[in-house]
Amino acid sequence: MHHPNLEKLKALKLFGMARALEDLNGLQDRGRLDFADQLALLIDREAADRANIALAARLKRAQLRQAACFENLDLKATRGLDKGLIRDLFTCRWITDHRHLIVTGATGTGKTWICCALGNQAARETAAQKSAEGVVDRLGGRRPERSPMRG
Predict the structure, then answer these.
(1) C-beta atoms surrounding 24 within 10 Å
(2) What is the mean pLDDT of residues 73-80?
(3) Among 27, 118, 119, 142, which is least packed by CB within 10 angstroms?
(4) Per-residue pLDDT for 59 more than 90?
(5) What is the Rg, in whole angstroms, of the alpha carbon atoms belonging to the chain?
(6) Which residues contact residue 68 at a Cβ distance below 8 angstroms, ignoring those fewer than 6 apart?
(7) Cα 79 from Cα 49, distance rounded (Å)
(8) DSSP assignment, residue 70?
(9) Average pLDDT of 104-110?
(10) Residue 125 has what pLDDT?
(11) What's the predicted TM-score (pTM) here?
(12) Does the pLDDT value for residue 135 go beyond 50?
């Protein structure tokens, strides 16, 4: 089924909303959702799609050598890792505190892998932080600051 607003959403580059509308049109029990719930689904899908695109762009720009992430880090391995320190590093507080990080160790201990995992985590934390800042700005009634390039 073709909804007349699909083309308008696509022309406005609201592709997440367009996909969500197509999904909603396919639901048998769509009538159970009131207008506000349906609109919320459209907005949530658009926001999620934009966040995923931004994350993918950040990860691509980072050019990480390996697809490593904290969830795959084996803290039980006998590498002599300080579990508390590793968990603290993966909160990315060292970035918000504007501190540098140097990873040292013997050859083959996984320094590159840990650095790639930290880069991955930093990209994800940045996405979450920007999303939270946008919500706070909207709730506080402030408009997000515009960069000089965007006017």
Answers:
(1) 15
(2) 74
(3) 142
(4) no
(5) 21
(6) 113, 114, 116, 117, 120
(7) 38
(8) G
(9) 85
(10) 82
(11) 0.62
(12) no
Query: What is the band of 151 on the pLDDT scale with cuts at 50, 70, 90?
Result: very low
In one-letter notation, the amino acid at residue 83 is K
> Is the pLDDT confidence value at 9 over 60?
yes
Q: Between helices 35-62 and 111-139, what is the axis angle to 10°?
A: 140
The contacts of residue 34 (CB under 8 Å, 6+ apart) are none
Calpha distance 12→23 (Å, rounded): 19
Q: What is the 3-state secondary structure of the chain?
A: CCCHHHHHHHHCCCHHHHHHHHHHHHCCCHHHCCHHHHHHHHHHHHHHHHHHHHHHHHHHHHCCCCCCCHHHCCCCCCCCCCHHHHHHHCCCHHHHCCCCCCCCCCCCCCHHHHHHHHHHHHHHHHHHHHHHHHHHHHHCCCCCCCCCCCC
Dist CA 151 CA 123 (whole Å): 25
